Amino acid sequence: MDGQIIISHCGGKSAEVDDSNERALIDDQFKDDNPVRCMLNNWQYKQPIVMIMGSKCPTSPTKMPHRYQVLDWFMITHAWTEPDPFSGHVRFKYRFEKVGLQESSWWAPQGMPGKNEEYLPAVAIEERECATCNKKSPRIYEEGFLCIHSTCQQFWKLDGQSAAHNLHYTQQFLRARHPVPPNYVVPSPLAPSIDGLLLDRNAELGNAHRDFWKGIVCPACGNCCARTSWKGWVCTCGYSREVGFHVTYTASQLREPHRDRYVGAPIPAINNRYNIPVKVETNGATTIVRYDLGPAVGTVIHVQNSDELNKKLGMDELLQRYQDPELPFKRGQVTTMCGTSYTRNFALNCGAAYHYVVDQDTVKMEDAPVVVQNVLSMLNEQVGKLCPGHRDFNEVLSLAYLEDMRMNYHTDDEVGLGPVVASLSLGAPARMGFRFRAGWKQNKLCHFPGLDVDDVKSGIPQFSVTLNHGDLLIMDGAGIQRYWEHSLTRVEGLFRIAATGRYIDPDTHEAASRPFGPTPAQRMAITSPKSETTVPTGEAQSTYMEDFFTHLHSIPKKEKSRRKSAVPTASATS
Ligand SMILES: O=C(O)CCC(=O)C(=O)O
Ligand SMILES: [Fe+2]
């Protein structure tokens, strides 16, 4: 790797060799493998590609300042196959060349190609035909011409013998620079302009559009900056940009335009295989639907009110007050195997501390925004009527969903939680799915005689409900969290609030809460100074590409059919 050329392999299927830090392929890579196909498409159709480098990259020419950094736009000039030095499996390799050769590369040290250096005149990479397969190969290594076609008997052989693995790239291969083909366009700047984003977007969307909650590149320091604050983007360098809401959404604006608000008894969306008993009770203004999941599990209760009753109960006002830009909503931090990330939705926890996979602050109920205090009273009153013996909630987790936000399947089964969990929905409609909790085999014994374990593994929802503005969804029974999972698969609109009440026993819950991940490291600036270099033009592109494509290492037929039949099992266990 230098400031303009990167030679690398990718395409997956590698694993650590024993306990060493070395990785090796555990299977051949094939042209039909998705990651390989993507790369070959990029090469064939000349699609520019952004290179991102991790701080642990062993061939980096300088010390990388961040865990991950964006290098630049590159194009693939050559692709070929080689045996993996450790396992002998076939692996695809690629030569990437920076598109903007005239720009100085921030990651290159002084004196390296790409750094303030007038570049050498372009040199061509020689190509030769293999006497056995009659296909062309580029000259990549000093040690001699190697046939790069893995289906050829002479693949990776020098004078009839398997070539060593510690070969040296030719100077031509390293020094060649290719003209940027006509019509070759970089699809976007590496750092999209935040002003363009904010000004061009339709203000009627009220800034709940996805563009307003995804990350930006900080215009002050170049750092990638997630939107975690309700008010807008706040970068660790001190830069901040408020977003606010241009529009205060009303319930009728957020309603699904193609479906009328509830009229009459709802039709529950049920995969009716297990005949979940459903009871519907209505008095005109309120409809209560009860999904009976069995005596050892519990009941899901869905309460829907007419528009008039919702108004009377103050639901529209609650929705409006939840759009106050001063509310301390935040996107919570989640630590995953791949690093630190954020929940999709904004959260505000009030009352007892509530720890789940997310690291979040809690506001005491006496200091909580009035809207949250009102919701708590309303939840306690309504749930008290429907679930006899209900212990008053002492916590409300308010979640704000902007466009395209959702919540994946999970259970609210943290230690110290009471058996009743109830959430009030405000704003845009959303679909909540319920499925069997994977891996909980006792399901079989517990209820639904004849439960097919494949239905547990499949992850398919057994029933789902549409939560409209003003609806109350009560999960009554600890067994629901034990044997079932729920998710918010789809929010049909720009803005939705879910305010969920729970009883949390502070002592047992605190004692059992999970450790949380580290805060994000301080980030440093990346700048990319410009310098004058010459860009080669007019040099021919490699011509062996066609040969390579017609002679590619593809999955054998037998293997292909085996993979196809394996698909359902693989997805079922995921
Ligand atoms: O958005 C919702 O209605 C569901 C929220 C939820 O499941 C939770 O807070 O645990
Ligand atoms: Fe939940």
UniProtKB/TrEMBL annotation:
Residues 392-505 form the Fe2OG dioxygenase domain. Substrate binds at residue 413. GO terms for molecular function: broad specificity oxidative DNA demethylase activity; cytosine C-5 DNA demethylase activity; ferrous iron binding. Residues 555-574 are annotated as: Disordered. 2-oxoglutarate binds at residues 401, 410, 486. InterPro entries: AlkB-like (IPR027450), AlkB-like_sf (IPR037151), ALKBH2 (IPR032852), Oxoglu/Fe-dep_dioxygenase_dom (IPR005123). This is Fe2OG dioxygenase domain-containing protein.
